[in-house]
Amino acid sequence: MTARPVLVLNAGSSSLKYAVVRPDTGETLLGEHLERLGTDDVGAALDRLVARLAAAGIAADDLAAVGHRVVHGGDRFVAPTLVDDAVLDGLEALVPLAPLHNPPAIAGVRHALAAYPGLPQVAVFDTAYFADLPAAAATYALDREVTARLSVRRYGMHGISHEHVAGRAAAFLGRPVEELDQVVLHLGNGASAAAISGGRPVETSMGLTPLEGLVMGTRGGDVDPGVLLHLLRVGGLSVADLDDLLHHRSGLQGLSGRQDFRDLLAAVDGGDADAALAYEVCCHRLRKYVGAYLAVLGGADVVTFTAGIGENVPRVRADVLAGLEQLGIHLDATRNQVRGGPARISADDSAVTVLVVPTDEELSIARQVVALVGVSRP
């Protein structure tokens, strides 16, 4: 029996990846990664992929289901979930927690429902992996009655990627994931870090929303809440202004006017002072999180870089880990020139193994979808 392929839609804040994946073999029959998309481009991109599948002769009867990456599931969705009207309503209700990410995912669900009526649609949530995050890591030190009433906690994101990469890193090393303490750095336009012990997360950088943590393309990550109060009280910003600032005019974009990392590096190399500062702030924040997570874990076996920047920008890996030799991290400059992977980039005498491991959210989603719907054919 061969599992039918799954159409996976992975709509991000500025990109759309889709793939037709055989979950048993990992083979991608058809796929595309569209980048630098604006909000208005997502619908057109979804129409394009439906037309491309039709041209390739891939019909609904050829598919097991459609799997959708959804960033935020709140405290309601903690496992892959078949989509119906009630679930769609639930996803809409969660938009305020991930306003850059949940809307394109919901658009993908609606397009797929129209294009493939009757085919199972499954939402797979980035937050689900962190649903059992230890209470000490998940809890904000705020009034407990307020947080309980509004379901305020640290949910974490990029869980699909972190779980997949942690497992793949263990397989690359030939060790059970249950034996390893790992720090995984998912670095793309959105970025997050996770501390993983025995295959389960014990800490992560994103929180209630994807705004917390590392410096990202348009999001600044950690910020003193007092700054936000100051902007509201003294700066004259409205709540809508603040929302726009935090989601669209912060991070690399806010510091340098460039959110794409390739454009940022070109500006750095061209002598742009704002771009250089943005790059330094980004690397400093990452280095701080690596050190903190080594402390949380009591030392790590593995530090792994993944996603577009993590997999393909050697200078970031070198600059982030520079000066951490006393913590047992020694890069090999030649090995670190690799792009892609999986590959070891640490020196032979490094106490902590440093890896580059490509993420494959689409394969992970496809396998979770088939595990739920159980559709196969001869």
Which shape, going by the Cα principal axes?
Answer: globular
Low-pLDDT residue spans: none
**Which structural class do the helices and strands define?**
alpha/beta
CATH superfamily of the largest domain: ATPase, nucleotide binding domain
* Major beta-sheet overview: 6 strands, mixed
Share in β-strands: 15-25%
Total helices: the number is 14
Would you mind describing this structure in some detail?
Pathway: Metabolic intermediate biosynthesis; acetyl-CoA biosynthesis; acetyl-CoA from acetate: step 1/2. The protein has 378 residues and is α/β, with parallel strands linked by helices. It folds into two domains: 2-154, Nucleotidyltransferase, domain 5 (2-Layer Sandwich); 175-356, ATPase, nucleotide binding domain (Nucleotidyltransferase, domain 5, 2-Layer Sandwich). 40% of the residues lie in helices and 17% in strands. The protein has helices at 41-55, 85-93, 102-115, 135-138, 144-150, 159-173, 225-233, 239-248, 251-256, 261-269, 273-297, 307-312, 314-321, 361-373; strands at residues 2-3, 6-11, 16-21, 28-34, 65-70, 81-82, 121-125, 181-187, 191-197, 200-204, 302-306, 343-344, 353-356, 376-377. The strands form three sheets. It has a six-stranded mixed sheet with strand order 4-3-2-5-7-6, with helices on both faces. A hairpin with a 2-residue loop joins β9 and β10 (200-204). It is globular, with a radius of gyration of 21 Å. The model has no long low-confidence stretch (mean pLDDT 92).
